[in-house]
Amino acid sequence: MASPCSPASSISSAGSTRSDDHNRPQTLDDLITHFVAAKRSLNTQTVLWRANAIVNTARDLLEENAVLAAKNTSIRNIVDQQVDALEAVRRGIDVIEAEVTVEFKQLLHDVDTSFTGLNATLATLRDTPIEAVLQPPGTPQKHLYDFIDSAAVSNLEGTLRACIDRYNEAHATLDDSTDAFDTSLDNLHSSIENVPLTPASASNPSPIPSLYQHLEAHVKEAAQAFQSLVQHFDLCVTALRHTEGGSAAAAAAEVTGDAVSHSGGEFAAPPEPMSDHERQEMVAVLVKDAHEVDDVVSEIRERDSEMTVLLHHIENHINHLRNEASALSSIRQMISQITGQVKSHIATSRSYHASWLDDTRPTLLNGIEEWENQRDFYERFDLAYAELLVEISSRRRRHEKAKRKAEDAQKELNRLHAEDERARDQFALAQGDFLPLDIWPGLRDPPRQYEVRAVTTEPGAEVDPLEEHSQDDGGIVKSIPQLGRNVVERALTRVKRRM
Questions:
Q1: Distance (Å, rounded) from C-alpha 266 to C-alpha 253?
Q2: How many CB atoms lie within 10 A of CB 107?
């Protein structure tokens, strides 16, 4: 159109197909037709009203976009920090559990090792019989195991089993707590992953400002296009006023209702003077612009469609932000619930650790030490019995040596006594007749006799070392038992092996 805001497409549409209209004179009917078309084109004003409403809505959404984008970003940062804190707590619980579990398994291995060693020693005691010569006749066969306090081993075993049961209960409680914690964290991570991510980032910022700028540009262009339609309508009014019968015909056209009145009583005022040349130029411009009216109207309606699409994109983006905000709000509620449960998880972990430090660990260590002490004691007991057999053999050997010495001494004393008797008899026979009896009262006494006898620990009691003696129960035993050679050799082997 003649206005500077006319679209190039409108200008190009006034091509050769319409060149005849430019050349032929315009009749009153032609001007009336242009007037009615121009007036009908002004109905596009409703598009401008809707465009204004769209821009106002978009402006509000632009503000909401800024608020929601900032809020969502802030909440995401807070969520990331809180999730990191929760994960740190969970890792801390894992560290405590891992440290305790490693030490518990090691102590349990040490307990098993100690118990296995003790059982091996006890098995040796069970398999080591007491030599029959050491027991009264008729006594049932006994073994070294019969002389130990087996209840101490059983009681300690029961204590350690109860301790391990308590540990397992505490660990099961911790497992239940950590499983619940893991489930909460898994649900939280799943919810975070399902939070709708608004398609905007540092590299791809929010499209709303750009869309809003496009909206404003469309509104501005539509307003300028509508202004050209208004100017064309005013030109039509002016042309009719300067055409004979034009004002009446235009008024009649308005009365028929073909268009909404926009002239505002322009036909009532007398027209300003205009020369024929000026009128011809005016009509030429009018005819040229008339051919572009439909294109301008189409352009305005197309811009209306474009603005509707742009607003739809803006609303979609805002809906994304709203959905993201709603989901993030739910995430914060989940974090709040999990945070409230964390105190319980930490308390369970502390209870588990305290139980380990105050009960399980010291009990296992004491059990290991006691079992090692028992094993050492019973090994010493077994060694002592082997050494006892060696000692009995040694005592028997020394006893027999002393017995032989005593027999030899007794023989020598008996020989000396007999020799003394013979010497005295010979002296008495040779000199007895010549010596009075009162010269020495002991002249005719027999020689003193000496006897080698075994002495018991009881005062005044004597035992013949060559004979057996009786016990109170009537049984008769050797003073020192006689052990078989193979028994002594086995005992010596055990003693040498453990030295």
A1: 14
A2: 18
**Among candidates 74, 60, 53, 68, which has minimal Cα distance to 319?**
68
Question: What residues contact residue 228 under an 8 Å CB cut-off, 6+ apart?
Answer: 1, 2, 3, 5, 6, 289, 296
**Token pair recorded at residue 165:** 């049961």
Give one DSSP letter per residue of 31-74, joined into a string: HHHHHHHHHHHGGGHHHHHHHHHHHHHHHHHHHHHHHHHHHHHH
Question: What are the backbone dihedrals phi and psi of residue 248, each rounded to the nearest 5 degrees, phi first?
Answer: -65, -40
| Whether 90 contacts 98, CB under 8 Å | no
pLDDT tens track for 397-451: 898 898 899 999 999 999 999 999 999 999 989 988 888 888 888 888 899 999 9
CA pair distance 2, 286, nearest whole angstrom: 8
User: How many Å from the N-terminal Cα to the C-terminal Cα in the chain?
Assistant: 125
- Residues linked to residue 248 through DSSP beta bridges, in sequence order: none
d(CA 396, CA 461): 22
Is 2 a residue whose pLDDT tops 80?
A: no
Token code pair at residue 198: 């608004």
Query: Which residue is it, tokens 């006892």?
Result: 388
- The model carries a pTM of 0.65
Token pair for 126:
């069970």
Q: Rounded to whole angstroms, what are the CA distances from 29 to 33, 47, 250, 437?
A: 6, 29, 10, 210
- Going from the C-alpha of 144 to that of each of 117, 252, 291, 379, 385, the distances in angstroms are 17, 140, 129, 11, 8
Quote the CA–CA distance of 460 and 453 in Å, as a whole number.
12
3-state secondary structure at position 387: helix
CB 4 within 8 A of CB 224: no
- Can you tell me the mean pLDDT for 440-468? 71
pLDDT band at residue 260 under the 50/70/90 scheme: very low
Helix (H, G, I), strand (E, B) or coil at 143: strand
Q: How many Å is the maximal CA-CA distance in the chain?
A: 222
Distance of alpha carbon 4 from alpha carbon 109, whole angstroms:
97
CA 153 to chain centre: 40
Q: How far apart are CA 338 and CA 86, in angstroms?
A: 8
The more confidently predicted of residues 297 and 495 is: 297
Going along 350-431, which residue ranges are E strands? none
Give the mean pLDDT of the chain.
Answer: 83
Find out whether 191 and 328 touch, Cβ atoms under 8 Å: no
By mean pLDDT, which of 16-30, 178-192, 240-254 is the weakest?
16-30
